[in-house]
Each structure stands twice: as C-alpha cells, then as structure tokens.
Write a structure and sequence with these properties.
It is built from four helices and 16 strands. The protein has 231 residues and is of the alpha/beta class. The longest helix is centred in the first third of the chain and has 14 residues.
Length: 231
C-alpha cells in the first residue's frame, strides 16, 4: 500500500514547502524545486551515512523519484559527497541535481599588482618611534609620527613619510611602483630603496641638516632633494 502523500502532494498541501522532522543527524527540507538534505556538522561521516540509510529505508516510497537539489550542514569531501550521491541515486531512486547556488566560485586571484594609490589610498599611521628590530610592512602608504631608529625597517607598497628622523631602512614602492617616494624631516637612512632602486648612506657622510627632504626616482636614478612645498 502506498503512502497517503507522495512528495508532490506534500509540497502542494504545505504551500510549496515542507520540513521532515529534524533529528540531530539527518533531516530533509523541501520546496517546489526539490529536496535539500541536512547533515549534522557535529557527527562523524560514518555515523551520518548509517543514519541516512536508516531514514531512507523507512521512507523509501515517499522519496522515490524525488529531486535532491543540495546538501547542507556538514562540509563533505568530494569522495564523501560522491558516496552519498551513489547511495541515494542507485539505492533509493532519487535524482541528484544540485542547484547553481550551491556551487561556490573562488574569486580569481590577482598577483603582482602594483599599488597605485600614491596620491591617495590606504595609509597606515604609526604613532610611535620605530625602534631597532621593529619592522613595519604595509600594502599602502606609511606615515610615521616619530623617528625610525637604526635597525628599524619600513616597507611600504606606496609612499613613506617620517615626521622625524629616518635613520633606519626605508623601502617605498615595494611591489614595483617607481613613482613612490620617501620623505622625512631628517633623511639619514642606513638603506633607502624605491621599487628596485637601492642606495646607501656613505660611511664618511657628514651629518645631514635637519630639514625636510624627499627621495624619489628621476631618470632611473634615486635622488634626494630638499622638500620645497611651494615649487
């Protein structure tokens, strides 16, 4: 004797939706498009498989020919999902047609992009002196409200501005932007780099004057010049 309702009848009698009584392991949720099978994320896969078979055995006529549109709850491996599909398709004559909404497309990974926001963009403010052994790395502009001591390092994809003395290492345009620059109230770096161009302070260099200076690339060379805001 057949069940009083089949899947189609139950959809119609419940306004196009139904939920089978939910236990802690396996339950079914249906609508006019088909059935989603919920598998508890807190139960081992081997136990889930046993409970799924038990539930389908007790409702074999009800779900015969039903369309399964997805799985919810537990994250299944490809092998586990294939085994579940095999069980419900060949053991219980159900049809598996997962909806497109259950397919997650990974965003295309972008690599080797040059940070272009050197006029405006992401900026990190360091509100202290960068001491020896400290390293600041940021995929944008960096502003230091203090000094950068010898042994300190600032590496930025954009510009570097130091509102004090820069005596450590500074690398602006670290991902290849040779339009980036380094500015400081007192520019005395142990190493200065913009994109792929590097310069070091000479061992016999006299003490530089305490005045704002700007380091940038001109004619494929790294040059340091006074910062003149009104020019």
């Amino acid at each position: 004797m057949k069940n009083k309702y089949n899947v189609t009848d139950l959809f119609a009698s419940h306004g196009g939706n139904f939920i089978m009584p939910k236990n802690s392991t396996v339950s079914f949720k249906g609508n006019k498009d088909g059935i989603s099978i919920y598998l508890s994320p807190h139960i081992d896969y081997s136990d889930i498989k046993v409970q799924l078979v038990k539930k389908l055995e007790s409702t074999k006529q009800f779900f015969e020919g039903a369309k399964v549109i997805g799985f919810e709850g537990k994250e299944l491996s490809e092998d586990e999902k294939a085994e579940i599909k095999e069980i419900i398709q060949h053991g219980y004559s159900m049809i598996v047609v997962e909806e497109a909404k259950n397919i997650v497309h990974e965003p295309e990974k972008k690599t080797n992009l040059v940070f272009t926001g050197i006029e405006e963009g992401m900026t990190k403010f360091v509100r202290t002196t960068v001491r020896s052994g400290q390293k600041i790395i940021f995929n944008g502009n960096v502003v230091v409200l203090g000094d950068v001591n010898p042994g300190g390092e600032i590496i930025a994809a954009g510009n570097i501005i130091v509102m004090g003395a820069l005596r450590g290492l500074a690398h602006a345009g670290s991902n290849g932007n040779n339009r980036a620059y380094v500015a400081a109230i007192s520019l005395q770096p142990t190493q200065l780099r913009i994109a792929d161009t590097i310069t070091r302070s000479p061992d016999n260099e006299v003490v530089r004057p305490m005045m704002p200076e700007l380091a940038l690339i001109k004619d494929n060379m790294l040059v340091i010049e006074p910062y003149l805001p009104n020019r």
